[in-house]
Structures are given as structure tokens and as C-alpha cells.
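ligand=pyridoxal-5'-phosphate
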Amino acid sequence: MIANILSIAGSDPSGGAGIQADLKTFAARGTYGMAVITALTAQNTQGVSGVHLVPASFVADQIRAVFADIRVDAVKIGMIATAEIAEAVADALTKHGEGVPVVVDPVMVAKGGASLLAADAVEALNRRLLPLATLITPNLPEAAALLGEAEAGDRDTMAHQAERLLALGPRAVLIKGGHLPSNESPDVLAASGRLTWLEGRRSATRNTHGTGCTLSSAIAAELGKGLDPLQAVTEAKGYIAAAIARAEELSVGAGHGPVHH
Ligand code: PLP
């Protein structure tokens, strides 16, 4: 049976990040994609020029409508924008989504620096959404913000922060090391009582728009197919590496281009 995967995230009209990236990823991974929209952004490959929020109650209405009719095999949560939307998403998933794997990508800042999460929403994200998560996928600045600590600059600190994030309630934590001050880009997965390092090299590319969205969506798709977190992350990392390599075939915008699904 084909897995049904739901993204709860913001829209990127340029098609590189947000729900547009999520839906392309779900299709490319052989799953059926669905999308609940939390916010519209006005943006292109060069940056975000506006954000228009969907009322939190209407985000909940969208989630309710999907779950009332459709079997959902996994959920990916991306841009949640505000504390009110975080609360509404948590309430709706607690009510309708019991037992469904949830990947939380704690989206905070767009590549160009625009804020995609209100400052007071980090607390709601921690308190309401992390405990619902099967896996969270912060990068180094996001892990630091969730913990209220300085950003990790080495592997030991990444490992400690992964353990500390686990204590906030998610079943597994993937910290992405792409911001480390070296040519290496190791990710660390804390799951099932152990730490696993997934080695990577930083690719020399400007085509990084939507890479976080794509990775978390690919993980959700694989969890929805029934893989465990380590298998799902391994598959998803292979997929994003190939999508970055294929981005050279695209000609989309003058800024940080999207990956090719
Ligand atoms: N979600 C939305 C709606 C966005 O616009 C962005 C970035 O612009 C992101 C998520 C995060 O993007 P990335 O995958 O590049 O971290």
C-alpha cells in the first residue's frame, strides 16, 4: 500500500522550500503527499519579502479535515510561525493523530536570514511539539536555540546537545552538522539508546534552498513506509545528496537555487 504523508508547513511560491519542496519530495519517494498550510510567504531564491499567517483555528480545521477522511502514515511539521499555531497543531495532532510518526523540523530562519518563527514560539515548540515528535531535525543554530545554549562548534558538543534535546521529549534527535567550522558535515542521530554519526562532506554548491525541508520530508516518507529512524535517515540523506547533485540541471533564480527532486 502506498504511504500517505502529511506536511504541516509554510508555502514558498518559488517552489524550493516549504510545502512545495515537501510535496515534491513525497512524490519522489513514492508516497502520496498532502499539505496543511500554516503561512504564506512571499519569497524567491534571494529572500523572503513577506509572511501572511493562516489563523491558528483554520490550521486546526485543515488538520481535522484530513484526518477525518484519510489514513495518515506520517506527518512532517515545518514552519509553524507562531506560538498559537504550535498550540493548535499540537492539540489537533494529539486528538486525531495518535500513533502516527511525526518529524519536526524546527524551522526558525530562512537561508537569507528572514525569521520564520516568532521569538516567543520557541517555548511553545519545546513544550507542545517536541514531546509529540518521533524525530526532530534541528541544524546547529536551531539545536542551540531550542536548548538556550551556545551553538555547537565540535562533535562533543553536538553529542551532548542531542542527548539534552532527547530529554525534551522526542523519541529521536538528528542534529545536522552542516554549520560546523570545518569541511566535514557530520550529522548525529540519537535514537534507541545510542548515538550514530552519519558522515558527510560539505558540497560546494549555492543550491541549498529547501534542503532542510527536503531532508525532513524524505525522513517522514520513509518512516511512513515503516522504516526505523536510522534506516529512514540513511535513505533520506542519500536522497538529498542526489537531489543537490541534480540541482545543476536547474536554472531557477539568481540566489540560493533549489534542489532537483
Ligand atoms: N519553510 C518555509 C515556508 C520557508 O520559506 C523556508 C525557507 O525559506 C523553510 C521552511 C526552510 O528552508 P530550508 O529547508 O532552506 O531550511
